[in-house]
TrEMBL record, chains A, B, C, D, E, F:
Keywords: ATP-binding, Nucleotide-binding. One of its GO terms (molecular function) is ATP binding. Belongs to the CbbQ/NirQ/NorQ/GpvN family. PANTHER family: DENITRIFICATION REGULATORY PROTEIN NIRQ, MOXR FAMILY PROTEIN. This is ATPase associated with various cellular activities AAA_5. Gene3D superfamilies: P-loop containing nucleotide triphosphate hydrolases. Residues 187-270 form the CbbQ/NirQ/NorQ C-terminal domain. Residues 40-174 form the ATPase dynein-related AAA domain. It comes from the Bacteria.
Length: 272, 272, 272, 272, 272, 272
């Protein structure tokens, strides 16, 4: 790969605009130190609390390209590494997302990594210890990671089963940072800005979310993430009545339990 | 793809005739707002309550092509995205239904999405957040969705098992709308019109369905959908005796439990 | 496909001789109405009660070709739709049985459909609602069903497990008809005619079957179907002693339980 | 296939020498009647009681070629039907054992058929009702069975689990015959002749087997078959001490349970 | 295959040096009789008691080539029979180990046969009854076994689960011989000779093993085999302190249970 | 393979710099004796206690190349042995990591071997007894191991399930050595040196780890390995506050249990 195509690829994965992100603690400083020491990082936290946005923010801040992969239970190591493609009767090697990140010195973000097949272990381990290598079996190549490469993984401790736990030998290769929903003030700011509505309504939506997140009844495994609040804000802005907007965007997506929906409905009625 | 072939394909998936649909609440307004904001939508409700018809109605109303996929437990992401076909000794790429929808700006409707294999996550996530992209691994292409594209999914909360629940990180990417059977007046209107029988008989069929839907005994996991009432109406119109038509079209399809069939039979006898 | 080859194929699947069938209720009228309205039909009933024969009878009566597929747990949608075959170094597309039925306007009978793999859903659904289409993924073709096509499925409520139940969203696409063993007079007539023995012996065989069908002890999940009575008749006609013929053709096939065999043996001894 | 090659193939599967078989009841007459009526036959009985030998005997007696397939849990329908083989860069179709039997009018014997994969249903059903056809999907051919073809299956009721039971819709397509170990006199005759030892020792071995077959203790799911007695006889003839021969050939193969082995050892000590 | 290449292959599998083996009973005589009668043999016994060595010894003694296959749960019949290989763009058939043994008249030893996939049944059965044939499906060849061929299998009754038991219809095709650890004198001789240490130390190691084999506590499913004693001897000879050698070579490999390790440690302390 | 390319490959896998390793007992002497006798070695111990570093150390000390493979549940024998690759339309054989090690006389280290698929048995067994061979099925080659080759495996007794236990017939082929965390003095030395911080802070980190390793409460299956202490040290050196560094690098990676995190937090507060 020439320097030119490498630069073009980096450009491709560069975050061009500053992602909107409000710091909630010293997570930026810890991540910067981890990145400076090239330590792999594990982000823990519930759905919709801003893990993905944080990684985008850090990639922008550190001026590094970002390669994101949403993991799932049918994702094999080969999906990360690459494959041979047939292009006009020729077989051409095509780097997978991880390989690209390793070559160009990107931050590679494996979202919900425990969901992936276990053969991903074989690529994670040598990239997260002093070897910093990636073996591409199918071409016989052994890549030494670009000095700027670092691996970031996320996972949600709330709904892991025993079967889907990370092995200790994998966990103990990462610095961990835990995330939670932003503080009310911050979240109001975010919802108002991204949902394009006034701060007052945004604050009410955040209050609603706060109450929902405190419910730990049967069936409600997780609270509403910030994204759902932004969805509600957008519906309101398009003239959907506020209660209906909250119901559609915040309550109904969370659970199918009718009793819980009633409870959630009461919360809406109390607020609006 | 030329503009011409794109237009032809859109034509292919356009709903030509206004689907018969009677509004039951403000679901049309909410969907229109969601579509205006390009928010992904999740339709929840029992079998046969009109979710599919509603999507057809909205596609017609918004004048968008509609691509429908019935999901099942052997449906892989690759079935949605596309594959290479052998045509006269040449390998030709053939877009899958989702890819087609993404290219032409259609509404893509994944019916009973929880049934599909979990690797569909990888296509759903980047299409339902600010990225709005679809990566076609096999060709190396990354599609940016047409501005008019939006994803709609349906699922039936009534018969989901723990194993087949949508992950929170997927759920919290959708506005949700819940559906139920139409109100008696509306349903009578529908059955009379689609089954081509008089309103009086139609009303009786709807009354029967209402009674059945109130039974929550062992084994009857769901009530009879509107389609079954229309089936009964059509049999009656073709001179099948009304009790027999109800039994064949409404009761027998619902359950194999003999006791329940007796109860259902009694309901018919009471009405006709 | 030319009109000529289509006609030839129809001829291939036509039932040439009137199948021997004795009506037991108004099942013929209901089926005719369902077919006139092109409603899909589900036949429910125990093994050997005549469901398959009934479909053959109706196909003959309606003068439609009949395509029958015995479903099993390794039957995939692709087995129904078709595949590419290698013929003298050429790949040739070969329609599967369902595709053939859809093209020529046949009755397609999926026997014991719950046994099949779940991806058959994807072919059943669009063929049983107002779309009436069959998508052939591998060739990219979307077939609109011939106006005379209709889908018929059968299944046996007696031995379905929870895992093998039809989904409500599939069930509620069919008119259902339930079948049981023919009444004694009818069955005697059938056994005498098909087994080529005198009515008196046939009547005794039917009495034996009636007694067996009333046993609902541990292990005897189903009674003896009419086919087994015909088998017994044929053995008797070939001079196998009557008790031995009953044991071999009627009792031994039903169960491996020794105690039950004794009970069945006593029933034979009482009768002959 | 020319008549000549067909004749050659039949010759291949013909039983040339009369298999040694001693009749124990009227099983020969029943089988002959079933064959005359071309009824499919199911042989039930414990391991080593002579089912396979009986089929060989009948094939010889009826002068029909015999094709035997030992079924197992990785046997698919395609293993029975045939496949394309690569021979010197040419793909050549090769009939599987069942297809060969269907073409030449052989008796096809599927030994322990419940062990096979369930897609074998699709080949068994149309060959065992009035259709008598075999569809070869891969070539698109539909074979009508030779008039002399008949299907025979065996299975052992002793060690079937619920999972491995034959479906009623399959069972009720066969005449059944049950087999047990031969009577002592007959078995002595067999062991003496096949094991090439004197009748007295043979009789003792049979007595031993009889005692073992009466034990129904924990772990001894089946008694010793006749083959093991013949093995013992052959070892004795080659000067292995009689007790040791019995232990090696009759007791040790049956079970790994040490207590049971002691019991079996006591039986040997009592007799020899 | 020419006689020359056959002879070369036999040479390849011939045991050239007399394997060191000390007879413990009349196992040699029984095996010789079984081989003379060409009866298949099953060797039962715990890990490391000398079954493999015994087969090597008998192969040497009978001057027959020996083909050994270690079975495992991913071993399919095709791994035994052979496959087509691509060699410089040509497909060449390559016999598997069993096929080679059948052709050249070797003893074929399937070690821990219950571990293999169940389709191995299809190759074992016709090779162990009067047919003595091996069908090579992929080439269409049916091999008649060389007159000197015989099949030997081993298995360890100690750790078989219900799922991994040999079927009775397979078991009852073999003469069985059971093995146990050698008597102390013999084992001392073996350890001293193979481990190259003095008889006194060897005797102590054997005493240790004897004590360990008598422990039947929770977790210790098997005792230490002779090989581990030889390992200990070799470490001692290379100046590892005797207690440490015993711990590393005899105790630690056996179990991960800490309490059991303490018990084993006490046994070492008592002896050395 | 020429001597030159072999030498180049050995160079590739040679450990160039002395890995930092502090001896904790006589593990070096035992390993040297085992290597001198070419006995296979099994390393047992918890995550992060230095097993991998020890192997690197020994490979450096013995001046042998080291080939390391991280095993996982989708690792098949073929991944170890090699495969055919398509390179510019040519199929070229590519040795897998084990094959390379066997050819060049390397130490081959299979990390967490129990995780791998069971067909690895077939490669492990003949390489760990007197045969010392590796059969490469796909090329038909049988490699005799280089005299300097030896196999080393590791596994962690702490989190093995019954399903993932090594079979006794595999275990009893290895000398075993058990590892634990280094003694406090040694570990302080290591952390100070590798984490580049003062000994006092390093000692405190080691004290923290010691306390954590003594907790055996619900959920904490393993203590913190030395690597995590080094991570903490590096963060501290980059000015992350010490408590935060400990939390991110030592506590959060270990467990998702909130109560345990509180306990771990208290331990930090007590120390710093």
């Amino acid at each position: 790969m020439t320097d030119g195509t490498m630069a073009a690829m980096r450009e491709c994965y560069r975050i061009r605009q500053a992602p909107y992100y409000l710091e909630t603690g010293d997570e930026v400083a810890v991540f910067e130190a981890a990145y400076a020491a090239r330590l792999p990082v594990m982000l823990k936290g519930p759905t919709g609390c801003g893990k993905t946005r944080f990684v985008e923010h850090m990639a922008y801040r550190l001026d590094r390209p970002l390669v994101t992969v949403a993991c799932h239970e049918d994702l094999f190591a080969s999906d990360l590494i690459g494959r041979y493609l047939l292009k006009r009767d020729e077989t051409v090697w095509e780097d997978g997302p991880l390989t690209r990140a390793v070559r160009m010195g990107a931050i590679c973000y494996l979202d919900e990594v425990v969901e992936a097949r276990k053969d991903t272990t074989v690529v994670i381990h040598p990239l997260t210890d002093n070897r910093r290598t990636l073996a591409i079996d199918k071409t016989g190549e052994v890549l030494i990671a670009h000095p700027d490469f670092v691996l970031v993984i996320s996972y949600n401790p709330g709904y892991q089963s025993v079967l889907k736990d990370l092995k200790q030998s994998t966990r103990q290769r990462f610095i961990a940072m835990d995330f939670d929903y932003p503080a009310p003030d911050l979240e109001t700011e975010i919802v108002s800005r991204e949902g394009e509505i006034d701060r007052e309504t945004a604050a009410k939506l955040v209050t609603l979310a706060g109450k929902i997140r405190n419910i730990r009844e049967h069936g409600l495994t997780e609270g509403a993430g910030t994204r759902l609040l932004i969805y509600a804000a957008r519906l309101i802005r398009l003239h959907v009545p506020v209660r209906e907007a909250c119901r559609s965007a915040v309550c109904l997506p969370l659970t199918d339990d009718e009793r819980l929906q009633e409870t959630l409905g009461d919360l809406i009625d109390d607020l609006f």
